[in-house]
Task: inverse folding
């Protein structure tokens, strides 16, 4: 974006403002959804990550100008995405039965986890 | 010996990018791996644990929501600082960059209040896995905020002298600093729901 005209920059500024407002609204949506007690942990995770994904995309595409970048940037990010996917595949391989629910543990099965005491004592060493 | 670093203003013919811009994107790629591995560790810890604390009973959602808004606002002011330079409005650049720096201070003040609350309730990294990874991830993120503030503070203060001599190079510096700052915002966008709301 190094040779944009002043008019183009002003249009971009309006876009920045709209994106900023959208991010604030979506933050409100994220918090509001967390107060709706969805039964399933998977539904809660899906909704939270969907909204975070939309917000993250707005930041990356508009604020970080990823809509108009060069091939080298896209290539390095694609490579990174591949390795991140691999990093996330590790817990899926090791704990996949927990994650998909075929071997539910206490918290994912909806059994109430033991609550932390409000003023838990400092651990003794 | 004074040596000019090439391709800080003009783009390299082979990449189509200035070297600082390619450099920051490669650095951010490494940062994605750093934070990605931590998110992956969180998934592993949480899915493999026999029980997990009710996160919302430990963390402070209103303070974290406020911090999210502060960081989003700082991203807007950061991008406005860059746009002001593109419009040759240095006074507005100083204003927006100053606001970005102050938003960083605000974020850290809120984070300090939040941490203090945890320590008051005797929640330490040794208390349980959730609190350990909460401190690790938010702490690492806070260090990134401080790093960004150091750069932004320099570009607002002593580093701003470059505007008079090499305005295009200075604008590129601000753009690169902005890319880092937006990344810090982007990481928080995912940390917020994962650590506070789920």
Result:
């Amino acid at each position: 974006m190094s040779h944009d005209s002043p008019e183009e920059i002003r249009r971009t500024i309006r876009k920045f403002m709209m994106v900023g407002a959208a991010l604030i609204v979506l933050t409100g949506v994220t918090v509001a959804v967390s107060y709706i007690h969805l039964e399933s942990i998977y539904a809660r995770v899906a909704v939270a990550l969907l909204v975070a994904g939309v917000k993250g995309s707005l930041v990356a595409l508009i604020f970080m100008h990823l809509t108009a970048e060069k091939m080298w940037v896209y290539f390095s990010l694609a490579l990174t995405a591949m390795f991140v996917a691999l990093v996330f595949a590790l817990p899926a391989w090791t704990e996949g039965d927990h994650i998909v629910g075929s071997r539910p543990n206490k918290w994912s099965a909806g059994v109430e986890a033991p609550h932390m005491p409000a003023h838990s004592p400092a651990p003794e060493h | 010996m004074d040596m000019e670093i090439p391709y800080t203003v003009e783009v390299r013919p082979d990449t189509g990018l200035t070297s600082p811009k390619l450099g920051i994107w490669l650095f951010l790629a490494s940062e994605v791996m750093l934070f990605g591995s931590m998110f992956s560790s969180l998934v592993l810890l949480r899915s493999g644990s026999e029980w997990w604390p009710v996160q919302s009973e430990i963390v402070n959602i209103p303070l974290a929501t406020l911090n999210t808004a502060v960081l989003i606002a700082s991203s807007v002011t950061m991008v406005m600082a860059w746009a002001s330079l593109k419009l040759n409005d240095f006074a507005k650049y100083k204003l927006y960059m100053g606001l970005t720096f102050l938003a960083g201070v605000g974020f850290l003040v809120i984070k300090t209040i939040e941490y203090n609350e945890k320590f008051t309730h005797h929640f330490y990294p040794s208390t349980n896995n959730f609190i350990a990874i909460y401190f690790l991830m938010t702490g690492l993120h806070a260090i990134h905020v401080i790093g960004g503030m150091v750069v932004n503070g320099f570009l607002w203060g002593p580093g701003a002298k470059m505007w008079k001599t090499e305005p295009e190079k200075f604008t590129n510096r601000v753009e690169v600093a902005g890319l880092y700052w937006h990344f810090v915002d982007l990481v928080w966008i995912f940390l917020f729901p994962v650590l506070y709301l789920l």
